[in-house]
Amino acid sequence: MNKKENIILSSNEISQIINELADNIKNNCTDINNLVFVGILTAGYPLAIRISKILQKECGVEIPVGKLDVALYRDDLLSRGKFITIRESDIPFDLLGKTLVIVDDVLFNGRTIRAALNALLDFGRPNAIELAVLIDRGFRELPVYANYVGRKIDTEKEDHISVKLYEINGEDSVFLEQNN
Fold this sequence. Notes:
single chain; alpha/beta; globular
């Protein structure tokens, strides 16, 4: 099977999408003072920080950001190989009474978000939970849908989306790896 990798989003396009996500969240938020973000590790966390900084600049309110590792909450834990990387979750604020926006890079089958919802129960109970994703590629296996979608990208189920962010990879880009 041949693999073909195409860049589908450039650094400038990613920046524009993140600004659009921030605008959509701001326009939908009824109380910016009760808004918090939790970014799913790895790529969701820097995206959440970027969105928070945009909103802080535009609204003059600091939006707290936490990070969440969902590795131990995944339902496919045993099928992921012998070794899994466990990273530290850090949600340094109370969730009670808050509107929590989970931020992730790619929404695919919905299993990562299901794991995040289970993990968040260990941290408290917000008033509402919303989801913001950079890319929605479809193929849901669970009834999980994002409130805020940067781009909907049509793929085949066997394809892979790779998001590179400056904070992690030293560059911003999104690649589609197609299996032919």
